[in-house]
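Researcher: Going back to the complex we discussed earlier. I've cleaned up the inputs and rechecked each line, so this should be the final set. Can you rerun the prediction on the complete assembly and write out the structure?
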Amino acid sequence: MSGPPREIDALIALMARLPGLGPRSARRAVLHLLKRRDMVMAPLAQAMATVALTAQDCRVCGNVGTTDLCPICDDPRRVTGEICVVETVADLWAMERGGAFKGRYHVLGGTLSALDAIGPDDLRIPDLAERVLDEGVSEVILALNATVDGQTTAHYIADALAASGVQISSLAQGVPVGGELDYLDDGTIGAALRARRRV
Amino acid sequence: MSGPPREIDALIALMARLPGLGPRSARRAVLHLLKRRDMVMAPLAQAMATVALTAQDCRVCGNVGTTDLCPICDDPRRVTGEICVVETVADLWAMERGGAFKGRYHVLGGTLSALDAIGPDDLRIPDLAERVLDEGVSEVILALNATVDGQTTAHYIADALAASGVQISSLAQGVPVGGELDYLDDGTIGAALRARRRV
Ligand SMILES: [Zn+2]
Ligand SMILES: [Zn+2]
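Model: Rerun complete. Updated structure for the full complex:
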């Protein structure tokens, strides 16, 4: 029995550990790359090596960039005094795609989780409290996921910041733009109903 | 609006072109890697660069390896005179996982397809005819997928080799209609090989 050569096997094993890929789809992806060694595989390896070498977490907000201070924290046109708290960098990018928020971010790096033994100190929550004091923040917007852990974390942060007197808000829950009621879960519809506004 | 930095955007775009990944799952995979820059991302980039540099198609059978002649063609313990014809290297690996075939392979690189304008000369079929004559081959086993294009290709090869007098057989029992070898369990492939029939 003679499977892929050792080097290719090692590559498949590493690819198979990516989220959304398993052994079979990793094999498929590697075979796809093997057919395009010069035009796709080598550039992809190069791009990945570059990012592995140059990526840095922003020392202020936890966003990922290629500098000590990320482009958002470093941008003088961003509104000061408004911090949007997100769980992950993926959520920060989603907020930026929306384009509606003009302030700065704070990336927690996850949510509180009793099950996974993740506490406030694992999540850059102490850094957030410090920023609120140091930066003269007037509003903290909690843009956490509408999951149990996300909401638990939101409540914890609201409590932790209560003494500072900063205004704390959270994203409105409701029907997504273009969303069809028939496809939404009941919780979403209930929340949308409770948060209804006059037109 | 400030999305991922240019280097990370470039990496996401390249990852999104892999089969089975789209823009969202590529972003997810890259964020996963960004959290594990030293332990996973750098080794993955290195493994990919190594393969891009060292991988070669075997000059005899079309299998992928790191040498001019692949380990199977180079292995004196493999039975000579039996060639198993497969569409892709993925199928060769699937056959090898089955472990039932002791001969050598011929990787076509696809199937005949009128729609995609893929003819015999695009598929290493002329090389196969040459090997049958040069290597004193007694049996050619057609292990092509049970798809329309796979079976069209099998018939074409059987016709092309008819004059040579070589025995031609094909995988039979166990391969479901429309089934692709790479998705079958090892036992099924072994059973199909043992029950192969002459065509
Ligand atoms: Zn920042
Ligand atoms: Zn070979």
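Model: Worth noting: Chain B touches chain A through 58 residues (CB under 8 Å).
Researcher: Good, that matches what I expected from the previous run.
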